[in-house]
Amino acid sequence: MALPDASPVPVPDASLVPDAVKDAARRAPGHWIGIVDPEWNVERTPPEWAVLGEWQSDESGGVGEYRANPAYRPSARVLGWPEPTDPVDAAAQRAATGYGTVEEALAELAEADVTVVRAPDGGPLMAAGRDGAPVVLLFTSPTHEFMSAALHHDTLPARELARSVTAAGALLSVNPGAAAPLLVPADSLLGPPDPAPVAGAGGPHPTEPWPHTTGRTP
Question: Backbone phi, then psi, for 100, in 5-degree steps?
């Protein structure tokens, strides 16, 4: 599966302490107060890679030193990527940035309806990949479609499409113009759907990085 690189983003300005960090410092003097990426919305201790950095609270509850986290992985939202157009696009963005998995993206794709361009013989139009393998371009939202309106488009279940092109050894190029395109073997959609929930489902969904007390000051 091909995914784009998640490039680093600037760390927060240490001189601009968020009010939430100030409040957390007052409640937890003598700790490091971490700022958690807004995509991490699970109600449990965040992993190191989801923490942008930390401010140190002194023994009186004031905010002092800031240290960036070199292991931080910025989410799609922090990177400024477009809002996802649909569940497949959202899962692909999470997989590309490390906040989800490829398996979750495939599970969403397997249950989706997709749009393809039809070839003259009625089958899905195929292109040649760089290695010569046949590739079917498909789209999960009109937002991602860039083919001419003069071409014959058709919508069908993704699994039905996968079954029709698996014998040819085709790859599926999903939303090739999106921030997080997918390139997957067609037969990867034909197994049983992954029952695992999408990462982060059911938790709070903050719009900004939120504070997390990571431990007492060494």
Answer: -150, -170
In angstroms, the first-to-last Cα distance of the chain is: 42
What architecture does CATH give domain 85-189?
A: 3-Layer(aba) Sandwich (3.40)
Long-range CB contact pairs, 16-23, < 8 A, 24+: 17/55, 17/63, 18/208, 18/209, 18/211, 20/210, 20/211, 21/55, 21/63, 21/211, 22/63, 23/211
Task: Give the model confidence (pLDDT) of 153-209 as tens digits.
Answer: 999 999 999 999 999 999 999 999 999 999 999 999 997 555 555 444 444 444 455
Residues pairing with 211 in the sheet: 35
Using CA atoms, how far apart are residues 98 and 180, in angstroms rounded to an integer? 12
Q: Could you tell me the pTM of the whole model?
A: 0.72
Q: Which two tokens mark 76?
A: 């799609």
